[in-house]
Amino acid sequence: MLQDIQAAIPLGFFLAFLIGPVFFVLLETAAIKGVKAAISFDLGVILADIVFIAIAYLTSFQLLENLSNQPGLYVFGGMILVVYGLITYLKKPSREALDPNRLKVKKNNYLSLFVKGFLLNFINIGVLVFWLGLIIIVGPTLDNDPNRLFLFFGVTIGVYFATDLLKIILAKQLKRKLTPRRIFKIKKLLGFILILCGIIMTVKGFLPKDKLDIQKGIEKINTERIK
């Protein structure tokens, strides 16, 4: 059990620093809207990961094969990110947006931030493929024991969330230096990043099927390790 925990800790830390749309939106939310708002958003992200892990565990090999045959899912998710990024990038600030008081998040906004975090992570089919591949790799090393798998992924998610909390606290310190003009520039940068991530995901959907075959990729990695 101790070995499982030791293996899960660096993985959770690594996941917290994967560069993607969620990473940047989390930092932007913490810096502009505060710690509680960012935690609400992050809890939605975590819930999406838990749902993905559950789906991956229950239907791993069959679902992996189906995803390989449905590259259109990448295109769909990518297009959603592109549209969301365009809206964020092109949206012009209103007079209310220039009001410093807008940086305070009302309680009734936390639920919407939670849902936003969940959906932003859930539409990224690449996250599901990642968890599928991870279960296929890690499962045999844990003897496919449900208790060991639960412990491993529980620790992974726990470390992931704890690291996110540190990122949120650090990003919150930037709020003192933020002006309405800088906030506007941050949002435009965030929109550009989302567009870029969406384009990358969409391109994956047009790649040849063998490029999306995660199982072959895993077998190739294992072969290289043996060599």
Automatic annotation (TrEMBL):
Q: Where in the cell is it found?
A: Cell membrane
Keyword Glycosyltransferase (UniProt) = no
Which of UniProt's keywords are assigned here?
Answer: Cell membrane, Membrane, Transmembrane, Transmembrane helix
Q: Which InterPro entries match?
A: LeuE-type
One Pfam family named in its UniProt record: LysE
The UniProt transmembrane annotation reads 6-27, 39-59, 71-90, 111-137, 149-169, 189-207
Q: Which domain of life is it from?
A: Bacteria
Q: What is this protein called?
A: LysE family translocator
Q: Lineage, please? A: Bacteria, Pseudomonadati, Bacteroidota, Flavobacteriia, Flavobacteriales
